[in-house]
Structures are given as C-alpha cells and as structure tokens.
Amino acid sequence: MEREGSLALVQTEFQPLVAALRDHLADRFDGRLHSAYLYGSVPRGTAQAGRSDLDVLLALHTEPTEADRAEARAVEAELDAAFDAIDGAGILLFGRDVLLSELERHDLGWFVACLCTPLLGADLAEQLPRYRPTSLLARETNGDLGDALARWRRGAAGAIDEARLRSLVRGASRKLVRTAFTLVMPWYGRWTSDLTEQAEAFARYYPERAEELRKIAVLAGNPVGDRDVLTMYTEDLGPWLAAEYLTVHGAKSPRPYES
Description:
Elements: H1 15-28, E1 33-39, H2 41-44, E2 54-60, H3 66-82, E3 89-95, H4 96-99, H5 108-115, E4 117-121, H6 135-142, H7 145-158, H8 162-188, H9 195-205, H10 210-221, H11 227-248
Parallel strand pairs: 2-3
Antiparallel strand pairs: 1-2, 1-4
Helix pairs in contact: 6-8, 7-8, 7-11, 8-9, 8-10, 8-11, 9-10
C-alpha cells in the first residue's frame, strides 16, 4: 500500500497555510519534535477552501506532556484564525516509541506509513514495513467500534447545542464509513481515504446496507445537528457493524494507555 498524499498535491490556496504550519512547529517544538506529518484532504489535493480542516500528526522524541498539548492547541487556534482556507485545525501528538511499537504496528504505524505525508524531520515510515490490506490490518485499525459507540452515547447525552451535535455527527459518520470500508478492505484489495469510494466498496459486499452508508458518507462532509441521527448510529447501524466486525476480523488489541 503506497502513500496516498504528497506535498506536491497541496493546492495553491493551502500552500501558505502549510508553510505557516511548518514555521509554527519549528518554533514551538524545537528540540522536542522528531517529525511532523500532514494527513487528510490537504495532502491528498482534495481539500475544499473554507470547508476542509487541516490534519496534522506530530511524533515527539518522548511522550507528549500537558505543555506539549497546550502548544499544539495554540498552534491550532492561530492557524484557524489566520487562514480562511480551513475550517479548523487538529494536531495529534504521539511519542516516537509508541508509533514504532509492535502494538501499534498495524494501526498508528500503518497510519504514519500509508496515510501521512512527511512535513518535517526524519520519516518514520523508513522504519516500518510495507503494508497489505489484510484482516489483521482491519482488526487493528477499526476493531474498536463498540468502544466508540459508548463514547457517542455519552457525547449525545451531554450535547447542549446544535454545533456540538454537528461535530459529533461528523466524527461518528467518518468512523462508521471507515469501519464499514475496512470490514471489506481485505476483499476489496486496496486502501482509499475517499469516503464515497469507501461507501461504494462496502456496498459491493453488503447491498442491504448500501444506501444507508451512502447517506452517512454525505453526512461526514455535511453534518447536521440532529440527535436522532446519532441515535440511529448508536442503536441500529453501529451495533450491527460492530458485531459483524467482531465476527469477521475480531477485536482490536487493548491499549494500556487508553481508557
């Protein structure tokens, strides 16, 4: 599985943003940063100005501290305020050793090697294997949907405004479509991050749920603040998909650093 993104694919309107990100990271994480990566629509060249977000992953030499997370939040806020081309920025932080660990070999390691585009520092992909779309990869990437359902239920119960509900619908929609895709990925034979293509791949093998997933793929890009949508996710499609996933691929290995 080859990397799907490249700095060469970044569209003109997003290039100043990427340059500013590089400067911010070099200033704020000097000495702490092992490497930085872009992922998502910006390095794929499919971002939509004013609608897409900026997705970033940082590998630090040691485990992230609260001070590191505060710096990351500051960079997110500064970029979001300075650039109309994006609708928010998100920065993930991990220690280098976690990303290269055997436990994360088929989840975060695969994510870095196949879905992340190097921006700064030495590329960790050089220390990771070549990946194929196997059942093991499917299990370790999305074999945790049951845990996500519990979080979505708690989030929906605590959501007090439409903006929060839209955010939950957006995140849940993406997770459901990606999980549905990785369910069939070993049969499909390759990876794609395109949610529409993911829904169509799933439809080949589960036609009885095809139209439902196509609608969710649309909601992933155009979310609504509707509590009933979340209820459908957590009480109908989600439980079915989680059970089917366990039957086909099994459960994701537990992480000692996750609650």
